[in-house]
Specification:
Blueprint: H1 4-10, H2 15-22, H3 27-34, H4 42-57, H5 65-71, H6 89-99, H7 103-110, H8 114-122, H9 129-138
Helix pairs in contact: 4-9, 6-9, 7-8
Length: about 150
């Protein structure tokens, strides 16, 4: 069964490039997903689908610096994974408010539970890069992974 990771690898990306694009630190995990030994998390799959669309259409989506400033977001929380710093709980809350809806509906958009969204906002759990990138995308801030 061909999965989206294989599509990127067949298009010339290395496993390390894919790791840097998505914020997945474990190359072993990516290899297991590639070999269908692990399920790909929803947020990672969705992020790769969006990136594939951008590559096919040659579309560019810049980070909306004005909107980021309005929401009080740090530049380092809006960068590619290699320079990324975890957003503060206040930044996460600000992006969630911009998306609108409750924690359950936001969680459904990005592939996590509403409980996890509340934990991210409360500072009780670190938000994964792919989830944060999707939240920023859904809040119309832009594609921070590009």
């Amino acid at each position: 069964m061909n999965n989206i990771i294989n599509v990127f690898l067949n298009n010339g990306l290395s496993m390390l490039d894919l790791s840097n694009l998505t914020g997945v630190r474990s190359l072993r995990f990516l290899r297991q997903v590639k070999e269908n030994k692990e399920l790909i998390p929803y947020s990672l799959n969705f992020l790769l689908i969006i990136e594939l669309k951008f590559q096919e259409t040659k579309e560019t989506v810049e980070v909306d610096k004005e909107k980021a400033r309005e929401l009080g977001l740090s530049y380092l929380s809006l960068t590619k994974f290699s320079n990324w710093e975890h957003p503060t709980p206040l930044e996460i809350k600000s992006v969630c408010n911009s998306i609108g809806g409750g924690s359950s509906s936001i969680g459904a958009l990005v592939g996590v539970t509403g409980s996890n969204v509340r934990k991210f906002i409360g500072g009780h759990k670190k938000i994964p890069y792919s989830v944060w990138a999707l939240m920023c995308y859904e809040a119309n801030i832009g594609a921070i992974w590009r």
